[in-house]
Each structure stands twice: as C-alpha cells, then as structure tokens.
Amino acid sequence: MTDGVGADELPGWSERIDTTTAHPARRYNYWLGGKDNFAADRESGEAIARVYPAIRTTALENRYFLQRAVRFLAGEAGVRQFLDIGTGIPTADNTHEVAQSVAPDSRIVYVDNDPIVLTHARALLSSTPEGATAYIDADLRDPEDILADESLRKTLDFNRPIALMLIAIVHFLFDEHKPYEVVRTLVDALPSGSYVVMTHGTVDLSDPAAREFAEREIRAGRLKVDAVPRTKDEVAAFFTGLEIVEPGIVPVTAWRNPVPEEQRPPLVDTAIYGVVARVP
Ligand SMILES: C[S@@+](CC[C@H](N)C(=O)[O-])C[C@H]1O[C@@H](n2cnc3c(N)ncnc32)[C@H](O)[C@@H]1O
Prior knowledge:
Layout: H1 13-16, H2 24-31, H3 39-51, H4 55-74, E1 81-85, H5 95-102, E2 107-112, H6 115-118, H7 121-124, E3 132-137, H8 143-148, H9 150-155, E4 163-167, H10 179-188, E5 195-201, H11 208-219, H12 232-236, E6 243-244, E7 250-251, E8 272-278
Parallel strand pairs: 1-2, 1-4, 2-3, 4-5
Antiparallel strand pairs: 5-8, 6-8, 7-8
Helix pairs in contact: 2-3, 4-5
This protein binds S-adenosylmethionine.
Residues 24-25, 28, 62-63, 66, 86-88, 112-114, 117, 139-141, 167-169, 172 line the site of S-adenosylmethionine (SAM).
C-alpha cells in the first residue's frame, strides 16, 4: 500500500520552487554528487566546502549512519514504523528501502518542507506490498501539524513503537525556532519502546584554526550559514529522560560502524554527531 501526496497531485508546487537561493536538500544533493541542484545551491555548497573541505565526507558519512541506524532499528530493535522528518531528495538506500529490506512490513512516513523533495515523492512511495509509505509536505517547526496529519495517522499506529528520525535537520532550527520544544512535542507523542534518531552538526571536533577561519568568513559576510552547530551537551539536552543506546552521542562514523577505525575518515572531518535513544 502507498499513501500520501504525489507531486502532480498538489497544484502549485512548481511555483514554490525558488531556484535563486540555496536550499539544504539541493545543496546536500550536490555534496552527495547528485544532479537535483541549481547554481545557487552549488555556489553555497562550494562556499562551505572552501572553509570546510570535508563537508562531502560529512554528508556521505551522515548518510551511512542513517542506513546503519535504520538497519539496527528494523533488525535488533524490532521497530516496524518510521517517521522520517527532513527526508531529503531520494538517493541510494532511503529509509523505506533499508527498513523494508530487513522487515518488508515496515511502514514509513516521510516529511519535508522543500517542494523539490515533494516532486520526488513518487520515488519515496515505492513500498513493498506488505508495508506502507506516505509523504507529508510539512514543516518541522509546526510539529502539531505533522502529528495531526491524516495520512500520518492512517499509516502509523501510535500505540506501537515508532522510530522518529531527525537526520541532519535539527541544526536548521535556530534557537528562535524553539528546537527543544519542537523535539519534545514529537517525542511526547511516541509510545513507550519507540526510538529517536538524530544527527546534528557540530564544531566540537573541528580544527581550531579552521574554526577561526570559518568564523572570520562569517563575520566578514563572505560565508552565509543557514544552520547552527551545537555542542555535545546541547545535543544531549534533546534526549533528557530517554535511554541513549550504546555507543552514545558520538561522531556519526563512530556509531556501530563495521569499518575498522583506522580506515574511517578522521573525526575532524566528520563534524556531525549521531545518536539513537529509546523512549522508556
Ligand atoms: C541535509 S538534508 C538531510 C536529508 C536526509 N535526512 C539525510 O540525512 O540524508 C536536510 C533536509 O531537511 C529538510 N528541512 C530543513 N528544514 C526543514 C523544516 N523546517 N521542515 C521540514 N524539512 C526541513 C530539507 O528540505 C532537507 O531535505
């Protein structure tokens, strides 16, 4: 079964696509080597890569973390329902493909606010017959709207465990967007035995000289940033009252990675924390 909207069913989506400013989904697609991006996304992507050359490695490692976390959830943790907010433009091994390859009856709801992602909704809705997928065009900053969405309620059973996935999205919420309240509203709606998965950008691990250079570029107006890095303690604060799964809040490359440590990119090149936690 598939449900939710497809791009051609939502009149007006094409007018919503703004190609003149960089958008996170398209810029991330550029770093991952995709073709669904415009000049503004590539310029912003290159400007960030100039001060932080490892951004492509970080994007790729973030993606590998997502896949390992979903495999852990659908396998070891036995979760069959996923709410993936900040889906991104589909690429290899999206959440539903990984989850359904482990457990074909997995049910996945995707949420994103970028119209370009909406145009790819069809690809995200290619469910197994035993499972289900849906796509919601909504904003993380309005968690109540997401929770009240009809196709969400039709696809996921809120009496059974759900994995809430917030992968490389929460750092787009500045403090004025009340990120802790947003995450708390979503977590409070989850039944016991659910999981919360997050990756979040950080400069904790960055080389101090590179960090100083980036700060100088930002102050001089040569680098525009639309994301807010947070420290490990600030990331931990999203998980108050939850049971953090081993190995804890770690750089994404260090989370249950079968690749031997000496073959992984150095920590200084993966400026993003990954964490999986269980709702008691
Ligand atoms: C860097 S991409 C990450 C994609 C995917 N989660 C991954 O990690 O591979 C961030 C995604 O979050 C989406 N996003 C950013 N802010 C959002 C918001 N306030 N509401 C919904 N989606 C948002 C962007 O459109 C983009 O698709």
